[in-house]
Amino acid sequence: MSRRAHQKTPSSLLFGLVAVFLVIAAGGALFLQKGSNPYRTVEPLQPSDYFENANSLRGNVYQIEGVILNALAQNPEKGRLFSISVTTDSRKWPMPIFIPAQLRQINLQKNQSYRAKVRVNDSGILVAEEIQKS
Amino acid sequence: MKLNRELVAFLWLASSPSLFAQSDGDSKAATGGARPAQMNPGFLGRDVPVVDPGSDNATFDGKLVNLANNRLFRSRFEKYLNAPAETSAADLEYEKTINEILSLLSPGKVNTANIDAAWKLLPKASEYRSDANLCNSMADVVYSVWLAKNEVARLEMANRSLQREKSALEWNYRMNLGPSAKSMTQIGTNPTSQSSILSPEDEARVEPIKEALSDVRATMVNNKLKKEASIVQAKIDFQTMIIQYFAQRRFRHVLIGTRFYRALFGDGDNRISALDQISSELPVDKDAGQVKVKAKLDPKISGKGGSGGYVGAGSGTGDGRRNTGVAAGGDTSSSGGAFSAEGMQLGVENLGVESLISAGASGLKALGKMINSLGQLDSLANEAIRDVDEGVEAYKFLLEKNELKSATERLFETFMMGEYMPSVRKLSRDEKRRALEFTQKTNELLAALEVNDLTRAEDIILELSKGARDFDTSKPLAVVETAKTVSAMHLAKAKAAAASGDKATLETELRAATEIWPRNPALAEVSAAIFSQTDVQQQALNDFDRLIAQKNYRQIFDDKVRFIAATAMFPDRQEKLKGVLDRVQSAEASLMRSHELAKRGDPAGAWESVERGFSDYPDDPKLNQARADYTTQAAEFVRAVRTAQEMERKRQIGSSLAWYLRALQDYPNSEIARDGIDRISAELVK
Fold first, then answer.
1. Which of B306, B323, B378, B452 has its CA 20 to 30 A from that of B530?
2. In this predicted model, what pLDDT tens digit does every residue of B314-343 receive, in sequence order?
3. How far apart are CA B518 and CA B512, in angstroms?
4. Does residue A81 share a domain with residue A32?
């Protein structure tokens, strides 16, 4: 039998291809993620928990995404209070969200969807720290 | 004392000729039982009896007594009217005996034999019931006079023998004197007044004779005094009896007595000294002083009048001979014109039992001066007998004329004057019957007026006017009508007070109306209506208070008409009622609105409407029922609202607001949710 010469794939090439794939995959993922949710690292708020006892969530930071329903009240020095409808699998949850005066540059439009990073304050109100259209 | 009482009663009777003076009852009826004008104290006060002959009224100790119209006289008169006529054989025999006695003692026939015969008839007359043993008493007194006369005769006989003894002693005295003494004693006849000087021998002899002579003389003087005293005492006893019979209105006995007296005491001395004797025997305390009418005059007037200080009390004072009583009385009357002057003060001083006894004694003496002989008593008795007989005749005549009032009055007067006279006692029951009926009716009228039973009084007045032609209905009817009008006025005021809720006036006016006319039929009706109204009102108020305590506002709302009327006079309850009605009306409005919304398929809206009413009136059963019904129909919305409210109560503002938002999402028209949202939102941004 003839001994055929062993044609071996170099291992460095294999590692290189895998690395390239991984890099490409990671880059794509990073690219994709970076465009859809800037607060992806922030825990989303469970509306049912909030409805059950908002006070128990005081001091926590969450991300929420919902449609602005109505402007409830405003104070030029303090900020504006809106209602936002957060949709889950089961239903829509209207929730109050306070936009402090520091974020006055953002125009919040009714029936438009926004994503926000919020903190539950001492009154149990969601106070937006960051907000942007989604 | 009995004699005095009889005299006073007789004098009262004599001054009270009318029976049917209705002023007492009338005045009571007209004034609603108030004190009549006559009750006001006069210038002598209320402690001295004062008789007003015009009205037959006497006032004493503040009480008004109608002399003719009082139980004592009325009952006595009615007893007489019911008594049978005294026409039996015994009665006729008694009268015959009395007449026989009078005949035997009449001035033309009187002699010792007739006096004895008359005296023997006295016990016989006493056997009859009508005589009341008065003739026996007279027989005893006559016998006492005879005994007294026998005693006088015995004393005279004793004095005659003493005179003989005296003469003998005087003779012995002279014979026992010596010759010298004899010559000296011829000057005088009285041995005791002799101024002769006797020798010791003569003195020794005549001394026993002198002593015996002195004893005889003293005994004679004593016998003479005894004789006089015995006769005087017999006379006074006899006079006392006659006066007593006069006071008892036993006029025929008075005549018998005076005739016996004249026959027994034939000395022509007919003076009555018994009254003086009685007055002198009264226990008059001179230290008690006199009853005085005190009159203090204004200085200006007193200077003119002169009497100035205190004026005596007329006949009420003690010793008339000292001129205090009579003179003082004159002063009082003479200064009567000054009584109307300003500044005069009158009063009574020293009024007590002793002073009144003193006054009584004085009065008896005054009476003794007016009636001071048996002849006067005799004529008064005869006049009374004639007057009584005339009164009976007048009664019979007036009865024929159907003038019952006058007839009864005349009979009453006649009865009071001559109750024991044959003409009065012989009236038959039938003749007295009509007067009796009239008397009973008038007594009923007085009783009805006394108790202000005006209906009954009016009926009796009409009845009397039919039976008695001369019965004047105008005065009693005027009294009745006036009282009725006054009562009606009080009732009208009571009604007005009841309507305005003025309880004090209501009670006062009802009491006044009741006092004036207790049996007023309108009074019962008005009282029933007022009290019924009061009961209904009180019941409604009780119900209202109970329902308020139970918070049963729905029941109050359903009976609002009753409660509005009942609480009209009670501002505090009225305020409560207003609050209740507002609350229930609000609940009702909520219910109506919820029904409409439910009909339109809006259970959340219906629930919310009920819920809004419920907050105002949480105890309303209707609201509760509707609320339960709609809660099941709009369960999610209701849960959201209630949770929101609960969270808000717990100060979980965020969750509460979220739940309100959710409720609004479930029912966008929810006012509760919107209010909650606004309330919390405003709080958050402020």
1. B452
2. 333 334 333 333 333 333 333 333 333 344
3. 9
4. no
